[in-house]
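Hi team,

Below is the intake form for DUF177 domain-containing protein from Salipaludibacillus neizhouensis. Please confirm the fields before the structure is written into the shared record.

FORM ID: S-0412
PROTEIN: DUF177 domain-containing protein
ORGANISM: Salipaludibacillus neizhouensis
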Amino acid sequence: MKWSVQQVQSLQEKGLQLDELVDFSELKKLDSEIREITPVRVKGDGSVTRNSVTFQLEIAGSMTLPCARTLNDVEYPFTMNATEVFQLNDWATFDEDEEVHQLKDNMIDLVPFVQERILLEKPLRVFSDKEEGPAPKSGSGWELTTMDDKGQEKVKVDPRLKELEKFFDKK
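The structure came back. Fields below:
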C-alpha cells in the first residue's frame, strides 16, 4: 500500500484499485489493550488528479480486546469507510476544512493512516457475556455492584435496619 508519485500519475487514466489483506499486528505494541488483531482487509479505489490522489476505502477486520468487567477476551469485529486525500504537488490549494496529507519522500503510504483509523475505531470498553473471568468481583474495601433499571445502584440493606425501611415508604 505504498506508491511513488510517478506510479500514481501513470495510473491517472485507469485509476487505482485496491484489495489487500494487511498484517497490522504492530498495533499490539502501540495499544496494549489490543490482544490480537486479524489481518485487515483494505478494499477501495483511488482517483488520481493532477493535484491529488483520493482514496475511498473500506477497512474490515477483527481485534481481541479485554472485557472491562472480567478481563476475558472479547472479539470485536470492525468495518469502516474512510476517505484519504494526498497532495501531489506543493502549489495545489485545498479547502481549509479538508484534511489533506502531505507526501514524505514523494511516496504515498496508506499504512499509517489505516492504522490510525483502526485505533480510532477501537471502543473504550467492551463486555463479555461470561460472568466469571480473571478479574475478581471484590477485594479489600471494595465490591462490584450493579445498577437497577433506573441507573441507580442496587443497595443491600443491613437486615438489622430492615425495620426502619417502613418509615420511609411513600403511600
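SUMMARY LINE: DSSP finds three helices and ten strands in the chain.

Thanks, M.
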